[in-house]
Design brief:
Oligomer: single chain
Radius of gyration: 21 Å
Largest sheet: 7 strands, mixed
Strand content: 15-25%
Shape: elongated
Structural class: alpha+beta
């Protein structure tokens, strides 16, 4: 990859990467939430909180500035025959417990899956309650007052394995693809997109520019993929036919732009190449590099 184009990609990834200070503040907030929940044990009965930890895009290094909430899994024990107990009472109990926290806005998400907390400094936390169901697996709210399985251990192993097998820095490249998605309507859910990029990673070129073209072409053909953790099944089921067609069209347009940028690079017109990549990825991609 030409030095000027390479510098543009490096600057792009730097711009969209959240600050470590934001993560550090979130960890402090999550610790305070954990204390609040423990101190209000009666309100979350018959569950007891055992631990919490950072999950999702921030834990995988794929979060993008302004578009990623910080996700924490809160592990609970208790409630025998949990399948007969709805998940909404636990979500509501956590919300009620945290409503008294000064300086925060607390709500159960519209999808009825997490408790969302917004702080005055702009930090957003999603609290995902999880009930241990075996040595590695958990049950989490499914949005319909029931539960669905998840396995963060298998998820973590899968993404690390794909990163190790790829020639590019997978978390960094994934951040770029997630920003492209956010800048073009955000039709793809974060975990769905991350899983598709991770599946492609071992076959992608080590050159970020070429890898971008390859990824846009592949996603334009299909967005179908099974959950790599083996828990959620087909990840694209939330998409309607019109949304699938829209994603395919967006990817074909992006692939065409990427091809034009690559041709400009071959011709030695690096200014045109960088400018074209900016039109492909969105406004935070540098349109010129000094």
């Amino acid at each position: 990859m030409n030095a000027q184009v390479g510098a543009a990609f490096s600057r792009f990834y730097e711009i969209i990467t959240p600050s470590q200070r934001q993560v550090e503040r979130a960890l402090v907030y999550a610790g305070a939430i954990s204390d609040d929940v423990r101190n209000a044990a009666r309100e979350v009965a018959p569950y007891s909180l055992t631990r919490h930890w950072l999950i999702g895009s921030y834990a995988r290094g794929t979060a993008i500035r302004k578009y990623s909430d910080l996700d924490f899994m809160f592990e609970f024990h208790g409630a025998t025959n949990i399948e007969r107990v709805g998940s909404r009472p636990l979500l509501t109990a956590i919300k009620d417990c945290l409503d008294r926290s000064a300086g925060t806005a607390v709500r159960v998400s519209e999808m009825q899956e997490v408790v969302q907390i917004e702080y005055r400094d702009g930090i957003h936390l999603d609290i995902l309650p999880a009930v241990r169901c075996d040595s590695q697996g958990y049950l989490i709210p499914d949005g319909r007052n029931g539960w669905q399985p998840t396995n963060p251990v298998i998820q973590e192993y899968y993404f690390k394995r794909q990163d190790d097998a790829s020639r590019i820095q997978l978390p960094e490249f994934t951040r770029g693809m997630k920003y492209w998605n956010a800048a073009h309507g955000g039709l793809l859910h974060s975990y769905h997109l991350e899983s598709m990029v991770a599946q492609l990673a071992p076959q992608l070129n080590e050159n970020y520019a070429v890898a971008s073209f390859e990824t846009f072409e592949e996603i334009s053909r299909t967005v179908s993929i099974s959950d790599p953790a083996g828990c959620q099944g087909e990840l694209s089921v939330y998409l309607s036919t019109s949304q699938r067609n829209a994603i395919s069209a967006l990817c074909r347009t992006a692939a065409s732009g990427a091809f034009s940028a690559l041709k400009a690079q071959v011709k030695g017109d690096q200014d045109a190449a960088v400018s074209t990549w900016a039109s492909v990825y969105g406004p935070l991609f540098p349109s010129k590099v000094s």
